[in-house]
Amino acid sequence: MLDRGYDREFAESIFAQIQGFGEYGFPESHAASFALLVYASCWLKCHEPAAFLCAMLNSQPMGFYSPSQLVQDAKRHKVRVLPIDVTISNWDSFLEGDGSMASVRLGMSLIRGMRDESAARIEAARAVRPFESVNDLANRARLDRRDLQLLADANALSALSGNGREALWQAVAAVPDKDLLRATTRDEELPVLAAPNEAQEIVSDYRSTGLTLNRHPLALLRERLSEKKIFAASKLATYPNGRLAKACGIVTVRQRPGTAKGVLFITLEDETGQINVIVWPSLVEKFRKEALGASLLGVYGVWQKEGEVKHLVANRLVDMTALLGNLATSSRNFH
After folding, report:
1. What superfamily does domain 217-334 belong to in CATH?
2. Which residue intervals define the domain OB in the entry (predicted)?
3. In what order do the strands lie in the sheet with 81-82?
4. 26-56 pLDDT, tens per residue?
5. Cα angle value 244/319/290 (rounded, 5°)
6. Are 301 and 313 in contact, with CB atoms under 8 Å apart?
């Protein structure tokens, strides 16, 4: 640059800018490759949302988004999601139906603790002829007590046994006998057990698969939250910039990038969508237990909105996990 007549001071300022960019900038080839992946993903999510969901579920574990988040988002975008069913489901999730009306049938891979070899035996036995009962399933697929209890907990036996409690009872009774007694059958009357209520089903769903096809847990708490002037994400989205706001949701993601100078970004999820929360470093230290430990987090702060970019800048954090009762949730934490 000096040979071309530029001043040394100007040349050094240009090199300093290039050096600064080099600390975080991507090479052009990497940026172009990433942009292509983002474009293709966005196109699929917009035009083929069922296929997009199916592919994302079958690629787990991955990235920021858990199966629960993916399913909740798909349901909000009118994708029909069908439950795990031992008479239909495979190991992987798959599309059921044709064209734009296709539904997503959840796969047995989503059941926590389920073994792929057990699922393979179920698929092989089912291909010969449909299962007639839980006993038939247990014997022909050679399932043990653990397999059957996992399927019952996931409500995957409902087509053969009724509600979840009846399925669990039959699963325990259906464990195949060994040796000489294997070919025998039990002649006993099955008890009629009351079906679990919605809250109990949701707790069981999250414990078994980490997601639910019932209502979102926050829908059951909405009346109580509304009494505290804590409103849903869909209502907050209509707020003008600068308005005081209260939010509450299940913590799905915590991010604290090294380049953010201590700022913590939290994503909350309720029955209507997601809320992006910004927590300044001083507030993280003041509410450290709530920020890093709460499963259900209440946030009091100021709503910021610029175009389509919307987030809640926190002034106060409240751990509201107790409202979830026995519901076990998890978040993706990136620090």
Report:
1. Nucleic acid-binding proteins (2.40.50.140)
2. 248-317
3. 81-82, 103-105, 94-96
4. 666 777 888 999 999 999 999 999 999 999 9
5. 95
6. yes
b/e map 308-330, b = 16+ CB within 10 Å:
eebbbebeebbbbbebbeebebe
- Name residue, tokens 């996992």: 150
The distance from CA 267 to its chain's CA centroid, rounded to whole angstroms, is: 12
Please tell me what DSSP assigns to residue 276: E
Q: Which amino acid is at 131?
A: F
**CATH 2.40.50.140 domain extents, the chain:** 217-334
- Tally the residues of the chain: 335
d(CA 329, CA 210) in angstroms, rounded, equals: 7
How is residue 52 written in tokens? Answer: 């997009």
Are 151 and 111 in contact, with CB atoms under 8 Å apart?
Answer: yes
Nearest to 252 by CA among 158, 309, 332, 137: 332
CA dihedral 334, 247, 294, 216 (to 10 degrees): -90
Helix boundaries (H) for the chain: 8-22, 28-47, 49-57, 67-76, 116-128, 134-140, 145-153, 158-161, 164-173, 198-209, 217-227, 233-236, 281-286, 288-293
Backbone dihedral angles phi then psi of residue 162, each to the nearest 5 degrees: 95, -150
**Rounded CA separation 218/216 (Å):** 5
Considering only CA atoms, give the Rg of the chain: 26
For 151-170, write each residue's pLDDT tens digit.
Answer: 988 989 888 876 555 656 56
Q: pTM to 2 decimals? A: 0.74
Q: Which residues of 266-285 are buried (b: 16+ CB within 10 A; e: fewer)?
A: bbbbbbbbbbbbbbeeebbe
What is the 8-class DSSP label of residue 256? -
End-to-end CA distance of the chain: 41
